[in-house]
Amino acid sequence: MSENTTHDKLPIRMLHDRVLVRSDSPEGERRSGGGILIPATAAVGKRLAWAEVVAVGQNVRTVEPGDRVLYDPEDRAEVEVRGIPYVLMRERDLHAVASERVSEDSTGLYL
């Protein structure tokens, strides 16, 4: 896609290899797979997070708006646009892409 704005019509055009994402889950309390409530203050080992790509720069080659990506929340720059928090990063800081664009015979993850 050559259009660098999001489907929400954000007034932003990303440059170079930058990717703007919106986190899937808010920071704070979360639940384990067994339903146990884990407070936001609990110490957890290094944990990666999923986010949705909302805008990409012209030099980004592997993701496009709408893709879900895996990234390290410790290596991020946050920005707020129209009251919504986003994360800005370089394409090389993404760890994986889960996309509906992959063929039916693949796993759905690019690693």
Automatic annotation (TrEMBL):
Membrane-crossing residue ranges in chain numbering: none
Purpose: Together with the chaperonin GroEL, plays an essential role in assisting protein folding. The GroEL-GroES system forms a nano-cage that allows encapsulation of the non-native substrate proteins and provides a physical environment optimized to promote and accelerate protein folding. GroES binds to the apical surface of the GroEL ring, thereby capping the opening of the GroEL channel.
Name of the protein in its database record: 10 kDa chaperonin
GO molecular function: ATP binding; metal ion binding; protein folding chaperone; protein-folding chaperone binding; unfolded protein binding
Entry keyword set: Chaperone
Oligomeric form and interacting partners: Heptamer of 7 subunits arranged in a ring.
InterPro entries noted in UniProt: Chaperonin_GroES (IPR020818), Chaperonin_GroES_sf (IPR037124), GroES-like_sf (IPR011032)
Pfam families (UniProt xref): Cpn10
Organism: Streptomyces agglomeratus
Family affiliation: Belongs to the GroES chaperonin family.
SMART domains: Cpn10 (SM00883)
